[in-house]
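Technical annex, item 7. During the second reporting period the consortium partners agreed on a shared format for inverse folding records so that results from different sites could be compared directly. Each record opens with the tokenized structure and is followed by the designed sequence. A conforming record, contributed by the partner at site C, is shown below for reference.
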């Protein structure tokens, strides 16, 4: 190679699975395999889990996604609403409510955490019950 690295000494490559890296035609892995057919491709476990979880979330009811997203937006944009909710929560639960995290399209665990906080708050259960 131009940089002096010996591709034949390369035993594997870890990647996120982008088409330019692992695609079938003129990708990094195909170019490397031309020089070293024994190279092993290891796709990133985190990216694979993210893709699987994102696909699974597509099967959730849209009203659930709407509820989670709008609950965060409703309370994050108004100090007055936060204060009223905190007062109501103190009367009903004798404590301080947990903040509902916002949803991130690239972080499927944020959806899980937001749903867990909403369910725990609405059912009067500790956050660790889910």
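Designed sequence (site C submission):
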């Amino acid at each position: 190679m131009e940089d002096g690295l010996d591709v034949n000494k390369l035993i594997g490559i870890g990647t996120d699975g982008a088409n330019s890296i692992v695609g079938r035609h003129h990708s990094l892995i195909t170019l490397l395999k031309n020089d070293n057919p024994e190279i092993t491709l290891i796709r990133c476990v985190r990216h694979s889990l993210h893709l699987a979880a994102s696909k699974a979330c597509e099967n959730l009811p849209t009203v659930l996604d709407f509820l989670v997203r709008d609950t965060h937006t409703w309370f994050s944009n108004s100090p007055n609403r936060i204060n009223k909710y905190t007062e109501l929560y103190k009367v009903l639960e004798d404590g301080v409510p947990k903040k509902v995290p916002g949803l991130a399209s690239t972080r499927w665990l944020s959806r899980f955490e937001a749903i867990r906080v909403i369910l725990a708050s609405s059912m009067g259960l500790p956050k660790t019950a889910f």
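The mean pLDDT is 79. The CA atoms of residues 68 and 115 lie 7 Å apart. All partners now use this format for quarterly exchanges.
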